[in-house]
């Protein structure tokens, strides 16, 4: 493989924006789908909570995901057909996982499994596929997209700050409702915020700009009350700063020292910070949420012990009711068996390790866009690994985004410079060869 510094310069996203009709651009379709699913979800739910509109689109996310999925599949298929370089091993791995997952759902549904479990998994598959294609094709580097995502993040932060009272983000006393009844939970808001942050942070080039970004993003997630997203965002900040640092080990040690200082002064922080459920992490580990998760995990381990090869599809439903799930990657072992668990484990850990080693060689990367794309791909994978190991089930939709961006990175910088099909004006032709020479 050629050294990173000798790879051909990537095709700059947006270089042919004036020539390519936006309606035919897979990048544009993916960008619009991203804005509709993540910032769009946040603003729609905020409008419901503020009483501006009613739940005209229900919970919004699944409906919009279904609406954007056909055009996303079309543009993805067009790119696959246009170039052999586009379809990488990461694309194949994800498609095989979706095919396996879908077959498990179909077989269990036909065998009489609980319909609510099968329906939830079918929706999760559509979310995974939609988010995969979005991150596979989206051009987050395009100037217009950078501005829109940054503005969206600022507006989301303003909404959280303005609608917070007594230390918590609060919308019309409905923040604990469920998505089907209209207003989303705090976790839905946090998901949209975190994913938008992932699309913005890698392109904050200056240290001053990144500090400003952290100063409104981390407090916003704190007020939101989603503890997992808050902790993961702090870990993301650490990873970004280590990435940009010349002396990476030194910066990492500084962050670890700061983390130790926070734990050492936990009591003082509890008195100073606005009180909300996030502070339960510092006060004790006996909150109702932690106890519930521990109970679900214990049940999952018991199930795995009884059915070590195939698991017990939806086994937690009968015990804990609708909406319950194991809050870590072992949920895959329960629902799709040992093979599905190991496959998913390798599917997310191998790319993360690969990009981690790439980051160790960032001093050799002189191309700024290459560095930003590496940071974006690693950031989404890093967040995904942390979330599925500690807080989310194997149906966490950002898994799709992580594999999609890794596939984007591989097709552009590893297996060769892939260039999306150009649908604009034809390239300039020369009558005589010397005219084509610089």
Name the descriptors.
single chain, 438 residues, globular, disordered N terminus, disordered C terminus
Strand content: under 5%
Helix and strand sequence: HHHHHHEEHHHHHHHHHHHH
The outline comes out as globular
Question: Distance between the terminal alpha carbons, to the nearest Å?
Answer: 29 Å
Number of strands: 2
Number of domains: 1
What this model shows, in words?
The chain is mainly α. It has one domain (23-419). The protein contains 18 helices and two strands. It has helices at 26-37, 39-49, 61-82, 89-110, 115-137, 143-162, 186-200, 207-224, 227-244, 248-264, 266-272, 280-283, 288-306, 315-320, 330-359, 368-390, 398-414, 433-436; strands at 164-165, 168-169. The protein has a two-stranded antiparallel sheet with strand order 1-2. Strand 1 (164-165) and strand 2 form a beta hairpin. The longest helix is centred in the C-terminal third of the chain and has 30 residues, at 330-359. The two termini are 29 Å apart.
């Amino acid at each position: 493989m050629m050294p990173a510094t000798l790879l051909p310069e990537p095709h700059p996203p947006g270089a042919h924006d004036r020539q390519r009709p936006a309606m035919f651009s897979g990048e544009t379709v993916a960008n619009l789908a991203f804005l509709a699913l993540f910032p769009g979800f946040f603003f729609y739910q905020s409008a419901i909570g503020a009483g501006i509109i009613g739940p005209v689109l229900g919970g919004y996310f699944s409906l919009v995901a279904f609406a954007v999925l056909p055009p996303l599949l079309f543009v993805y298929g067009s790119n696959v057909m246009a170039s052999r370089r586009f379809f990488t091993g990461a694309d194949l791995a994800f498609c095989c996982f979706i095919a396996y997952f879908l077959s498990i759902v179909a077989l269990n549904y036909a065998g009489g499994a609980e319909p609510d479990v099968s329906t939830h998994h079918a929706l999760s598959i559509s979310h995974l596929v939609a988010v995969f294609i979005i991150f596979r094709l989206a051009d987050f580097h395009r100037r217009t997209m950078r501005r829109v995502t940054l503005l969206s993040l600022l507006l989301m932060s303003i909404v959280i700050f303005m609608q917070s009272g007594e230390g918590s983000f609060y919308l019309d006393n409905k923040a604990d409702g469920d998505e089907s009844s209209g207003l989303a939970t705090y976790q839905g808001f946090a998901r949209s915020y975190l994913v938008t942050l992932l699309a913005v942070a890698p392109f904050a080039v200056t240290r001053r700009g990144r500090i400003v970004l952290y100063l409104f993003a981390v407090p916003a997630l704190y007020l939101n009350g989603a503890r997992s997203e808050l902790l993961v965002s702090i870990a993301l900040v650490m990873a970004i700063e280590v990435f940009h640092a010349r002396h990476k080990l030194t910066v990492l040690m500084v962050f670890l020292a700061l983390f130790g200082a926070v734990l050492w002064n936990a009591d003082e922080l509890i008195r100073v910070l606005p009180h909300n459920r996030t502070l339960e992490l510092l006060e004790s580990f006996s909150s109702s949420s932690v106890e519930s998760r521990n109970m679900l995990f214990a049940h999952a381990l018991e199930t795995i012990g009884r059915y070590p090869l195939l698991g017990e599809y939806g086994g937690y439903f009968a015990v804990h009711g609708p909406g319950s799930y194991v809050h870590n990657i072992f949920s895959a072992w329960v629902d799709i068996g040992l093979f599905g668990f190991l496959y998913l484990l390798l599917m997310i850990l191998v790319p993360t390790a690969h990009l981690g080693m790439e980051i160790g060689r960032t001093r050799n990367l002189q191309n700024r866009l290459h560095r930003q794309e590496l940071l974006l791909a690693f950031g989404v994978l890093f967040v995904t690994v942390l979330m599925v190991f500690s807080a989310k089930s194997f149906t966490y939709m950002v898994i799709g985004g992580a594999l999609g961006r890794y596939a984007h990175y591989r097709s552009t910088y590893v297996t060769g410079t892939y260039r999306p099909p150009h649908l604009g004006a034809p390239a300039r032709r020369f009558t005589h060869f010397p005219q084509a020479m610089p």
